[in-house]
Structures are given as C-alpha cells and as structure tokens.
Amino acid sequence: MAATITFPIDTPTGPQPARVVYERRGTGRPLVLLHGIGHHWQAWEPVLDILAVEREVTAVDLPGFGESPALPDGVGYDLDDMAPVLAALFEALDLDRPDVAGNSLGGLLALELGRRKLVRSVTALAPARFWNEAERRYAFGVLTAMRVAARAIPLPLVGRIARTAAGRAALTGTIYARPGRRSAQAVVAEARAMREATGFEATLATGRGVVFADDVPDVPVTIGWGTRDRVLLPRQGVRAKRAIPAARLVRLPGCGHVSMNDDPALVARVILDGSR
User: Fold this and answer.
1) What is the dihedral of CA 69, 224, 175, 58, to 10 degrees?
2) CA-to-CA distance for 15 and 169, rounded, in angstroms?
3) 20 to 30 A Cα–Cα from 16, which one of 41, 50, 153, 237?
4) Residue 62: alpha-carbon gap to chain centroid
5) For residue range 209-244, what is the model confidence (pLDDT) as tens digits?
6) Is the dihedral of CA 101, 102, 107, 109 positive or negative?
C-alpha cells in the first residue's frame, strides 16, 4: 500500500508543508521513479517488482498528480521550483543522492536533478523538451486532447470501454504501443489520474518556448526512446544525445511513449544497467 510523507519546502511566504504519496518496494541501493504529466506512480507498476529484486525502489506521485496534492501557493512547477521540492523529498525520505529514472516529464526532472548533481545516475525515458517548436505544439495538442477526453468521458463509461482490448487501444493507444497489456482497472485509474491532475495546466505551461539544452556532466546518463513513441517523436533522442554527449542513447524497439508497459523486461534492464 502506498504511503504518504509531509515535509517542509521553501515558499515566498516562508516554509510550508508539501505532501507526496509514494510506493516503496525492495531492498538495496535506492532508486527513485518519476512519472510523466497526467500520470501517477502506477505507471511504473509493470517494472516495479523486477527492479525491486535488486534495488530499493520508490515510485513517486509528483506534486499535483496522482494522489499527491498541488504545491503550496507561490511554488511553481518549472524546473527551478520542482528540483528543490524533489531534493527536499529525498531528504525527508532519507535518500542521499539516489539513482533516478523518469518518463517524459519525469525524465526531464531526472535530467535536471542530474545537472544539479542531486542524484547518482539518471535514466530518462523519452524526456520532454528536446523538441522543436512544431513538435512541441504537436505534443501539447496530444496531451491536451487526452486531458479533455479524460474529463469528458464518465469513468463508468471508461470502465465499460476498457473491458475489451480494442477499447483499451482506443483509450490508451496514444501512449502505449501495446495497450492491450493494460488491465481495465489500470486504464480507469489512469483516466482518473489525468482528469484530476491539479498540476496539469501549470506544468504544461512551463514548457512553452523552452528546450533542455544543458549538459549533465559528471553523472552517468542513459536516455531511452521507444521506436513507436507517438507523443515525443523518437528523433528527439538524437537531440538529447547532442545536448548530453556522454549520455548512452538506447533504442527501445516496439515501445511507445510510456515504454514501461510495452516491454517491462527491457526497460528494467536499461534502468538497472544505467545505474550500476
């Protein structure tokens, strides 16, 4: 069962409490998992038990997503605000420079944590902000459409549609190359997470006109990209490699944007190899 932790963060009006929900499994060197925009920690469920054989794994509901409430007033969702929040979370969880893996938004956050040398290694799966402007507009359009659909379709109807493989493909085929692998229950939970994400609009807005152009020196970085990613196109991985020359760029054959679902064994191996 997921746990909740409350910890102080700095705000313009002084320290305020932040609350984060997380799931922890396994023993060993600590590994933190960060999900994408509109998702929740359960995005990592396909790989959690595989990783937990070797590592102490903490999968986080980012503030404003999943069961974690929004950040306090005055604290934004850009990298300059989120990196200190995550650093404070690590301290509260007694995690001293953990390894970190992230998907999409989580991959971007993982790279920023690596740039600030707050983590030991980074595995970024289809990280955001390696787009050009046309690709950004396209990705924002896809994500906004998913948000609108999640808020428009009643959850009982989502449950009925998700009972069949074809229904699950219609609901989640944008982010998964193999949507039939998701259970109906997981699809309904994802729709709820997307519709109730209090941090969605503020987080999306931080990406307008912004790319990640910084190197991440002195920290091992692995960048993985699904060959069937329909949200952040695979060619963006080449730009990520240019920005971070020492990074290991790994193709994830047959995987979509949320690759953990599509090939759990491969993704788990990429994460473990990148955090030795």
Assistant:
1) -30
2) 45
3) 41
4) 8
5) 899 999 999 999 999 999 999 999 999 999 999 999
6) negative
Q: What is the end-to-end Cα distance of the chain in Å, rounded?
A: 28
Confidence class for position 276, pLDDT limits 50, 70, 90: confident
3-state secondary structure 59-124: EECCCCCCCCCCCCCCCCCCHHHHHHHHHHHHHHCCCCCCEEEEECHHHHHHHHHHHCCCCCCEEE
Look at phi and psi of residue 28 and say left if phi exceeds 0, alpha if psi is from -120 to 50, else beta: left
Q: How many whole angstroms separate alpha carbon 200 and alpha carbon 205?
A: 9
* Predicted model pTM: 0.97
